[in-house]
């Protein structure tokens, strides 16, 4: 709650009634003495780097596969150009652009409308507000009740699409153990497996997942299965920020690892 004496949803404040006075109000948006600005700067920087890298990678037309590995940014691959990594061929050899461009909108949309990432980018980029008990620079606050922020409501549908992505990433993880010489374990196998697991954690800890398994009921007491699912989803939901920060960098690092293998910069160690 802003310490300047007015709520975030209020119209422009009357500084005459503010304990800081008009000049003080302009100079100080908070009375917090700690370094409250560190977190929005850090989280905003990580988010910007991950988004920028992913946007660059999604446009690349080479080096997104190496042996049994495929970058998660390009999965599921729907283009013939992916060869053995194509899950379903909807785009023939005539498709010359990056195959990631066809599918990357779903995970991007899922993360962009995620309740947790919203908090991060509302604070870091829109300063709305930049932190708890810090006033925002905007004169008015309309919430998510108008276009374009009204579109945040499609999150639950993007979550359903995300389930398909999670299944395909799991398939990629299993395939990553299957080399030309048989079933083996490479370092990349573990990287792709960790990526799939973290994405599942992110998906199953989602607020929409919790609502899906336990919502729409007056009481859970007569629904033992849903109650168990809801209890598990609630426990995971408390760790949603952790999964959000584990799963996003892992996507970037997995793509980098596959690229380094594909370009011959790295050699994939075999652990078994
Ligand atoms: S709230 Fe973050 S993925 Fe649903």
Number of domains: 1
Give the count of helical stretches: 10
Radius of gyration: 23 Å
Elements, N to C (H/E): HHEEEEHHHHEEHHHH
Describe the protein in words.
This protein has helices at residues 21-27, 38-58, 100-103, 105-113, 115-124, 155-175, 187-204, 207-214, 224-237, 240-262; strands at residues 65-66, 69-70, 77-79, 86-91, 178-179, 182-183. The chain is mainly alpha-helical. The strands form three sheets. It has a two-stranded antiparallel sheet. It starts with 20 loop residues before the first helix and ends in a 10-residue tail after the last helix. Helix 6 runs antiparallel to helix 7 and helix 7 packs antiparallel against helix 10 (240-262). The chain has one domain (31-262). It is built from ten helices and six strands. Mean pLDDT is 90; it is low at 1-16. Helices cover 50% and strands 6% of the residues. The structure holds FE2/S2 (inorganic) cluster. The site of FE2/S2 (inorganic) cluster has 10 residues, from helix 5, helix 6 and helix 8.
């Amino acid at each position: 709650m802003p310490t300047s004496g007015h709520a975030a949803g209020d119209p422009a404040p009357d500084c005459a009634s503010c304990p800081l006075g008009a000049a003080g109000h302009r100079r100080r948006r908070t009375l917090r003495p700690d370094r409250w600005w560190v977190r929005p700067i850090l989280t905003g920087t990580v988010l910007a780097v991950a988004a920028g890298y992913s946007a660059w990678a999604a446009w690349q037309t080479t080096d997104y596969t190496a042996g049994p590995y495929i970058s998660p940014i390009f999965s599921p691959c729907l283009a013939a150009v992916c060869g053995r990594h194509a899950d379903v061929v909807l785009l023939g050899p005539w498709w010359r652009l990056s195959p990631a461009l066809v599918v990357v909108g779903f995970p991007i949309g899922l993360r962009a409308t995620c309740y947790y990432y919203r908090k991060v980018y509302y604070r870091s980029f829109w300063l709305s507000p930049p932190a708890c008990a810090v006033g925002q620079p905007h004169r008015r606050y309309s919430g998510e009740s108008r276009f374009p922020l009204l579109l945040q409501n499609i999150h639950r549908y993007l979550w359903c699409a995300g389930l398909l992505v999670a299944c395909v990433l799991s398939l990629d993880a299993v395939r990553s153990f299957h080399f030309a010489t048989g079933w083996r374990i490479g370092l990349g196998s573990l990287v792709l497996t960790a990526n799939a697991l973290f994405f599942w954690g992110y998906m199953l800890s989602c607020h929409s997942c919790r609502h899906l398994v336990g919502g729409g009921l007056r009481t859970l007491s007569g629904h033992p299965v849903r109650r168990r699912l809801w209890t598990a989803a609630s426990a995971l939901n408390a760790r949603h920020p952790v999964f959000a920060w584990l799963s996003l960098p892992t996507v970037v690092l997995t793509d980098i690892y596959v690229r380094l293998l594909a370009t011959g910069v790295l050699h994939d160690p075999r652990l078994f």
